[in-house]
Request: fold
Amino acid sequence: MYRYDEFDREFVTSRVAQFRDQVERRVSGELSEDNFKPIRLQNGVYLQLHAYMLRVAIPYGTLNSRQMRMLAHIARTYDRDYGHFTTRQNIQFNWPKLTDIPDILEDLASVEMHAIQTSGNCIRNVTADHFAGASSDEIADPRPYAEILRQWSSNHPEFAFLPRKFKIAVIGAPHDRAAMQFHDIGLEMRRNAAGNLGVAVYIGGGLGRTPMVGKLVNDFVAEEDLLSYVEAILRVYNMNGRRDNKYKARIKILVHETGLDELKQSIDAEFERIRDGVLKLPDADVRSIEAYFAAPKFELLSDRSSLLEAAKADDKSFTRWVDRNVSAHKQSGYGIVTVALKSTGEAPGDASASQMDVLARLGEQYSFDELRISHEQNVILPHVRLDDLKAVYDDLVANGMAAPNAGLITDIIACPGLDYCALATARSIPVAQEIGERFADLDRQNEIGDLKLKISGCINACGHHHVGHIGILGVDRRGEELYQVTLGGSGDEHAAIGEIVGRGFSKDEISGAVETIVDTYLAKRLADDESFLDAYRRIGAAPFKEALYGPVAA
Amino acid sequence: MSYLYKDGAFQSDKWLTIDGDQPVPEGEDVIVSLTLFEEHQHALLTRNSGRLGVHLEAAEQLDAIVPHLDKFDVVSLDFPTFADGRAFSKARWLRDQHGYAGEVRAVGDVRIDQVSHMKRCGIDALLVTHQQTIDSLTDIKDPGLQLYYQPSAIDGETKAGGRAWARRA
Amino acid sequence: MSILKNPVVFTANRLRDGESVWLGASGVWVEDINAARVLRNETERDASQALADQADADNIVVEPYAIDVSAQDGVVAPLKFREQIRAAGPTVRLDLGKQAQTHASRAA
Ligand code: SF4
Reply:
């Protein structure tokens, strides 16, 4: 993975010193909250219901064991012994003191981490496929491009005060595991006819108040033009994006109101103007960034592990976990392990300091010192020998992290919601917990099969409810929590926005409503292997509506 | 009261800002609004004496002034609030696209915490009202970073670190 | 001096550590909502508003605002659910936030 050089180190440490000075000026009263707020946001510091919240960037979700241990250390030393992994592959600490944050940032800098641009109207932490460099279906590892974009966007002098936040995701495989089409810019790595690497560029995707699927604006931008093209998009957006209404300020609205063709013309004109300028990427520089992400020294192993087969033979729970939580690796004899932070009763994405330490140890011992955070709020051990799976599993069992539910109905995405978030209109976590308990029976979960359930505590949609096969949005109706259900959303390469099924449900009703939906699916599916989403696409919303609200008069 | 900061020091502002429909005095260096410029373009461009500058509000585009850039000694860009970053892009455009060599000044909510970004985008003069910003500039206390991952088209920049895009300001 | 429809208290987060706090009887910001100064008429509210604004200007708290409460027998309860959660702590972590005290003593 990427390692800082002197320049990066100096950059991050001077940024910490800068923020330390700004915090001091705030506390002394020299900076008012009005002036401080945009500054603290650009350093990942929010003020939430109970306390400040610090969001730390985990660039494209990749970290090493030393970094994971530092996160544990921060949770223990400055916070309440836990952290929350988010849908943007970041981690949030819920209780830091403002006056401790410069120290936290200094600790983070010592392991090459930071909180820069995890908030504010700037280019946010660049995300990528969490299976990058490991999955069997990959064209190329997206992380070198993500890293180049991370650097280019860091403290960008021109784009620090955009109309609104700006999110970029990069994928390198045809199967989209990063919800790429729901980003302001989505990049999909491709090879052109000549075999050269580049990206297809999508713009204007996003969730929130006005969910939209990103639109293809260019089907091949050559690697050397990556930064020029992205900069051209940002410049057009910075000058033309709406600033009169924050709900209409994202680039998706600019795309919608201007029209893709016209906007494409402006982008292309700007691109042509700058493409042969200073942003052109020299091949040697790209290759040297790429070298940081070179595959680890895999052993040459057979794709069948007799150790694994033997262990599976006499442990049904283990088999179940392997079936759900281990994915195909490009290297034979290896697997990708998903550690689901979704045990029954837990808050999705939360991990205690000691669990983080365990994960760090497992990464070190079994996965070439590498860990990933997925946007589905799970932790990934990307390169585990099949021979070692049983040992990893046993360790996870002992530490309460062996939920065998990756991709199942209880592998729920949930934002912090009204339990923590100042913007929330309803709680998310207790809804996730109730649904988790209702469907706790593993046989039943497996019978239901692949089902993505996603919950947001307000229209900002941090819990990605629009792209849940079942999405739940918590709203406030006259002081009561009310939950709206959407069906049929999808964040993968067949991107779709879920449709609202009908009137909302109270907190007491919502998990029952989910059960009704699931039962309807089970009754209507053609075969065991017709997934919820496939069945929904075939039969539409009507049967679900009828099951939830009774027959509709014709 | 606002003060002009340029070339590392506060200095007296020789430029007269013409608001609205005020008459343009002969012989004076004036900065006019875009509306005024568009209405009296000919008269302004053919004045016998006195230099000319133009002021753009945040929502006003560069297009109208681009054909006449060589006539302007100052382009003044409005920062209506700390959070409105449009003028950063305009400054970059003036410098990079049009090779504009005159003064680009930032006017409005100019704050010390943005000064390094402004400089980096090619702004070389600040009209400052905010007292703490005045104090910091007087003490030469710029909290901005000197390291950038964004190369600019400004001549004479040298690479920093081992990459094509890293720069030391 | 008109009576308010609901009694109110002032709340904010403390600047230095972000703790949610309420404006207390003696004009000090307190961590327990039950120790908050309950305001029942406009005159009282306006006086507290001035104190709250001053604390904001003095950089003691951030963006104070008034919330509707019910107040009986020394128990101050916000009417809005959001404010109830602020006054207690996360409903999913009874060991955290203000409620942790009561939770711990109950568990003991
Ligand atoms: S979706 Fe709303 S409630 Fe949930 S974290 Fe985002 S802003 Fe907060």
